[in-house]
Amino acid sequence: MQLTEDRRARVAVVLEKRGLTKDVSAEEAARVWMNERFAARARALFYARMMFLTLGLCILAVPVWRYYFDFSALAFGGYFLMLLYSVANYLVLASEKAGRIVTYVTLCLDLIVMVVVVVKPHDSGGLANPLLATQLLFTTLFALLYPKPLAILPPLLALPITARLDQLLDRSPTAIEVLTLAWYLGLNFIIIYVLVYLNEREVTAHREVVQLQGDLKELAVVEERNRLAREIHDGLGASLSSLIIQSEYVSQIATDGAVKKEVAELKQSAEEAIEELRRSLQMMREDFDLANGVEDYVKTFGDRTQLPVRFEKSGTLIGRMAPETSLALFRVLQELLNNAAKHAMPKTVDVKLHFGSEAVQLGVKDDGKGFDPASPRPGHYGLINLRERAMKMGGEVTIDAKPGAGAHITFTVPVGP
Known about the structure:
Blueprint: H1 2-17, H2 26-61, H3 63-68, H4 74-91, H5 96-119, H6 134-145, H7 153-168, H8 175-253, H9 257-284, H10 290-305, E1 309-315, H11 323-344, E2 349-355, E3 359-366, H12 382-392, E4 396-401, E5 407-414
Helix pairs in contact: 2-4, 2-5, 2-8, 4-5, 5-6, 5-7, 6-7, 6-8, 7-8, 8-9, 10-11
C-alpha cells in the first residue's frame, strides 16, 4: 500500500512539473512535450553562446588576434550587447510564446554578427575566411529549434549576402571561393533535410507513443473490469443463486403461511438482486445495451409493482456511449420509478428514451400526486442527487411537477462521438 502511494506521489510530482494532469488529452501532452523540447534546446543554445562569447573575449584580449579580425573599440560594445541579449533570452524561456520569438530574434542577431566578423578582415575576409564554417552551425541551430522551411531561411541567406558583400568591397571571388560557396550550400541543404526529417520522425513517434499509452491505460481498465466481473459473478452470483435454491427448499417444507410468504419475498428479493447483478456485470464488460436494459427493467418493474408502465424509444444512437453514461441513465431510471411507485401512487407511468446526435434524454412521467420542486421534503435527497449526477456528467435535469398534477422529470446527458 505504501509503495503504491509513493508511486502515485511521484507521478503527481512529475505531472505537476510538466504542467499536465492525469486526464490530459494526447494533443495537450504532445504540445507540452514540444514546448519542453524547445526550451531544452534553447537552453543548450544559451550555453553555446556563452562558449562563443568566451572565445570572443579571448580574441578581443589578444592584440594579434584582434588585429587579424580588424576589431576596433566598438567591438567591445558589440560583445557586451551580445552578452546582454543572450542573458535576456535565457530569462524569457519560461514563457511559451515570448521564448520562441526572442530566441529567433537573437539567433538572427547572432547571424548578423557572424556575417560582420567573416566579412570584416581586409586580407582574408568573406568567402576566404575560415570562420565562414560557423554558418553551418547556425543552420543546424535554426533547423533544431525551428524546423520549418521559412524559419531556416536566414542562415541560408547568409552565404549569398557574404558573397555580395565581397563584391561590394572589390574582392573578386576566386574559383576556389566559388567552389567553397557551392560546397557550403550543399552542406546546408543536407543538414536541413536530415534534421527536418528526423524532427518529423521524432514528433510522429512521440504522438504514437502517447496514443499507445492511452490505449494501454484503457486496456488495463477493461481488463480490471473484466477481472472484477468474473470475481463478482463467481462469488456474489453463486451466493445469490444458492440463496434462491435454499428459499425454494424452505418454501416447500414450510407449513406456516406467513413463513411461506416471507420466504417468497426473500426469494423475490434475491432474484431481483441477481438480475441487478447481471445487469451491472454487463455494464462493466461494456456490452450493455441501454435501450434493451431499460425496456427489460420497465417490464420487470411493472410486473413487480402491478403498475401500468409504458416504454417508448426514439432516435438512433450515433457513435459510442461510455459505460458510465449508460450506468448513470439506468440508475436514474431506477430512482425515478421507485420514487413514483413509493410516493406518487400513479395510475400510469410513461418512460421515454430518446437518442439524439449529441445527447441522450430519459424522461419519466406519471399522473400521481405530484409535488412542489421548490419545497423539497426534509430527509429526501432524490432530486438533489439527480442534479448532482447531471452536473457531474455535464448534463441537466428538467422537473415539471405540481401538487395534484403529476410529475414529468427529464434527465439529459451528452454523448461523445
